[in-house]
Design brief:
mainly beta, 121 residues, 7-stranded mixed β-sheet, 4-stranded antiparallel β-sheet
Length: 121
């Protein structure tokens, strides 16, 4: 059973930092790219960042580029999102996501339960 468990969210002042973690299980973690997606109050899902299977390639939404850093530790089956210079508009529930490809060609997107990040003074 695929499981994604996010942690590390909380309340932080503008300009502060947080580090989110997503612990994965139930699939070959080192074979899959991972993503972070967020949902602000009253808004739709926004893709934030992605990292390829070995961590050699990363990508970011323009809204977080230069402030957020995605990384992974394949030995620990964990993906991270280091968030610096946080702004009130970064307030959202943050989810990690993986698209697992099964032997019959089916692709299924898995999501964690999310972790709340609130940026406020």
């Amino acid at each position: 059973e695929v499981q994604l468990v996010e942690s590390g969210g909380g309340l932080v002042q503008p300009g502060g930092s947080l580090r989110l973690s997503c612990a994965a299980s139930g699939f070959t973690f080192s074979s899959y790219a991972m993503s972070w997606v967020r949902q602000a109050p009253g808004k739709g899902l926004e893709w934030v960042s992605a990292i390829d299977s070995d961590g050699g390639s990363t990508s970011y939404a323009d809204s977080v580029k230069g402030r957020f850093t995605i990384s992974r530790d394949n030995a620990k089956n964990t993906v991270y999102l280091q968030m610096n210079s946080l702004k009130p508009e970064d307030t959202a529930v943050y989810y990690c996501n993986v698209a697992v490809i099964y032997s019959d060609g089916t692709v299924y997107h898995y999501w964690g339960q999310g972790t709340q990040v609130t940026v406020s003074s």
